[in-house]
From TrEMBL, chains A, B:
<protein>
    <submittedName>
        <fullName>Fumarylacetoacetate hydrolase family protein</fullName>
    </submittedName>
</protein>
<dbReference type="Pfam" id="PF01557">
    <property type="entry name" value="FAA_hydrolase"/>
</dbReference>
<dbReference type="InterPro" id="IPR011234">
    <property type="entry name" value="Fumarylacetoacetase-like_C"/>
</dbReference>
<keyword id="KW-0378">Hydrolase</keyword>
<feature type="domain" description="Fumarylacetoacetase N-terminal">
    <location>
        <begin position="1"/>
        <end position="73"/>
    </location>
</feature>
<feature type="domain" description="Fumarylacetoacetase-like C-terminal">
    <location>
        <begin position="78"/>
        <end position="316"/>
    </location>
</feature>
<dbReference type="Pfam" id="PF18288">
    <property type="entry name" value="FAA_hydro_N_2"/>
</dbReference>
<dbReference type="GO" id="GO:0016787">
    <property type="term" value="F:hydrolase activity"/>
</dbReference>
<dbReference type="InterPro" id="IPR041072">
    <property type="entry name" value="FAA_hydro_N"/>
</dbReference>
<dbReference type="InterPro" id="IPR036663">
    <property type="entry name" value="Fumarylacetoacetase_C_sf"/>
</dbReference>
Length: 319, 319
C-alpha cells in the first residue's frame, strides 16, 4: 500500500491512498498520517479497503502539485549513519575518531517540518556548503523503552525515502562541540509516497531496503547506490534509539546517506562523500557543493524495476 | 499571567489560567498551549480576560495531581549551554576543547514528551549515572529564519523552568561521536507554570531570568543559583537556532544548567558540575549520581520572594 499526503488548510495535510501506478488516489476521511500511525491497527483495515477500491479503477486524479511530504511534520526524527563505507570514507578524509562498529551513530534532527518532493529549498547562503544526502527511513508506531531489535521489527509500519539537506561548512564546527547539529541540518525532504514494507517485495529483507537509489544532480547521474549495505539494520537502530526513552508513534528513523563499498562504480548519495573520495585519492576535493538554482533528483528503483516511493525532484533557492 | 496544563483525555491536555496564589484556575475552552502559541495574538486577550476574572476571586480549585508540564509535548526543543562557568568547569575537569565564547552551544533534544512537575521518572539503570539539570527556558511563537537577536526578543512569549534529565555514563560516549545525545537525554520535566515575562518583574532583564533557582536533592540543599549569568541571552540563543531554519511556534529554547561563578558558596544545579568541581580540587569526584528512589526539588525564587513557576518535585524510579 502506498500513502501520500495532499496539501489542505491544515499543517498535517490530508492522508490519501494511492494506486499502484501513482495516478489516482482516494482520501482517508479525517485522517492525517500522524493520527493514523498513532492508531495504526484501526487505520490499516480502512486504508486497505481504499487500496482495494483503487484496484477496481476508482479514485480521483492525483495532482503532483498538491503532494506534501507523506508526514509533513513528526514529533521525532532520529537519523542514523548506518552505512559503514560512508563512515570509513569520512573518517579517513577528515581524520575523525575510528568508526565504532558496535554502536550505531544517531542524531536527533528537526522534525517540525519535512519538505515535499518538489518544494523549493530556501537556504541562507551558498557559502554554507549546500549538500544533499539520499537516504531511506522507517516510520514506527509507539515503541516502548528497552525494546530489543527482534521486537523492534514489528513496529516498522511504513518505509520512506528522504533527502537530508546538510550544510557542510557548518557541520564540522558543530560536530566538534559534541552537541550535534542545529544550523548544519535544515529541514529534510521526503519522496511522495510512504509505503508498507510489502511494497518492496524481496527488496525489504534483514531490516534493510535493498532497492537502488538513483541520485541525479543538475540532470547528471551522481550515484546509483543500493540500500542493503547498512552496518546496522533499522530494527537495530530503533532498539538503539529506545534505550532510555519510549519512541512516540510517528517517529521517523533514518538510515543515513546510502553508501556502498563499490563507490568507484556506483557513485555516492551526497557530495560530501564524493569530496572525501577525492581528498583520499588526490589530497584535495575537486567537486564543489551546490549553488542556488541547482536541482537534485532522487528515486528508488526496486530489483524488479518499480519506483515505490516516487521521486524527489527539487531546486535550491536563496532564502 | 501564569498558565498551566491539566490532564484530560488528550495528549496536549487542557490549558488553564492560574491565579496569582496558584490555588485557583479557569479553563481556556478548547485550547492547549501548543495551539494557543500558534495563534498567540488571538489567544492572549482571551487568556488575559480569564486572568482578570481570577483576580475577582472566580475559578475552581487547582488540583496539583492534574498538573502536567505546561507544554506536555512540543515540535521542537533546543537546549543551549549558555552558562560560561558550567562550560569552563566541565572543560577543565574533562579536558574538553576550549569553550567558544563567540558561538552558543546548543543541541536538539527529544520534544515529544515533557514530564509534569510531580511525575515519577522511569529510567533503565542506576549505572547510567542519573543526573538532574536545573535550568530555565523560553517558548517562542513562529520565528523566521535569519532573525537577529534584537528581533528575536519580541518572539519570547512565555518563560518556563525545566529539569533536563541526563545520563552521565552515556553522555561522553555519545558526545565523542559529535552527533549529540540520544540515549543520554531522556525526556525533561517542567515546573507547573509557564509565565509571561512580566511575571518576573525586574528578574526578567537583558534577555535573562535573574531569579534564584533552589535545587534540593533528597531534601538537602544542593544549589541556590542565579539565572542571570548566561554568557548568551535567550534572544541570542534564538538567533543562533534560527540561522538556517524557521522556528515553529511552540519551540522551547533552554538555557542549559544554571551555573554561577560563585559556585563555592552557591552550589550547582546538576551533580555533574559538583563532581567536576571535586575533580578539579581533589583529582577525583566524591559525589555519586542518583539512585532509584531519590528525589529532586527545583523552585525559582524572584528577588521579591515570589515563586512564579511553582516547584518541580519528583522521584527517580526503575523503568
Amino acid at each position: 500500500m502506498r500513502l501520500a499526503t495532499l496539501r489542505n488548510a491544515r499543517p498535517d495535510g490530508e492522508l490519501v491512498v494511492v494506486s499502484a501506478d501513482g495516478a489516482r488516489y482516494l482520501s482517508a476521511p479525517g485522517l492525517n498520517l500522524i493520527s493514523a500511525i498513532a492508531d495504526w491497527d484501526a487505520a490499516l483495515p480502512m486504508l486497505g479497503r481504499l487500496s482495494a477500491l483503487l484496484e477496481t479503477g476508482a479514485g480521483g486524479h492525483l495532482d503532483p502539485a498538491r503532494i506534501m511530504a507523506p508526514m509533513p511534520r513528526s514529533w521525532q526524527w532520529l537519523d542514523g549513519s548506518a552505512f559503514a563505507t560512508h563512515g570509513e570514507l569520512m573518517q579517513i578524509a577528515f581524520n575523525l575518531p575510528p568508526v565504532d562498529r558496535e554502536r550505531p551513530l544517531m542524531y536527533q534532527g528537526m522534525s517540525d517540518r519535512f519538505y515535499g518532493p518538489n518544494d523549493a529549498i530556501p537556504l541562507p547562503s551558498e557559502a554554507d556548503g549546500i549538500d544533499f544526502e539520499g537516504e531511506f527511513g522507517v516510520i514506527v508506531d509507539a515503541v516502548p523503552m528497552g525494546v530489543t531489535a527482534e521486537e523492534a521489527a514489528s513496529h516498522i509500519k511504513l518505509l520512506v525515502q528522504i533527502n537530508d539537506w546538510s550544510l557542510r561548512a557548518i557541520a564540522p564546527v558543530e560536530m566538534k562541540t559534541g552537541f550535534g547539529w542545529i544550523q548544519a541540518k535544515p529541514p529534510c525532504s521526503m519522496a511522495p509516497f510512504a509505503v508498507t514494507p510489502d511494497e518492496l517485495g524481496a527488496d525489504w529483507a534483514n531490516g534493510r531496503i535493498g532497492a537502488d537509489l538513483s541520485v541525479t544532480w543538475n540532470g547528471e547521474r551522481f550515484g546509483l547506490v543500493r540500500g542493503d549495505q547498512m552496518g546496522f539494520s533499522f530494527p537495530e537502530l530503533i532498539a538503539h534509539a529506545a534505550r532510555s526513552r519510549d519512541l512516540v508513534a510517528g517517529t521517523i528513523i533514518g538510515s543515513g546517506t546510502v553508501s556502498n563499498a563499490e563507490y568507484a562504480t556506483r557513485g555516492s548519495a551526497c557530495i560530501s562523500e564524493r569530496r572525501a573520495i577525492e581528498m583520499i585519492a588526490d589530497g584535495k576535493p575537486s567537486t564543489a557543493f551546490m549553488a542556488f538554482g541547482n536541482t537534485v533528483r532522487m528515486e528508488a528503483i526496486t530489483s524488479d524495476g518499480r519506483k515505490p516511493f516516487g521521486a524527489i525532484d527539487q531546486k535550491v533557492v536563496s532564502a
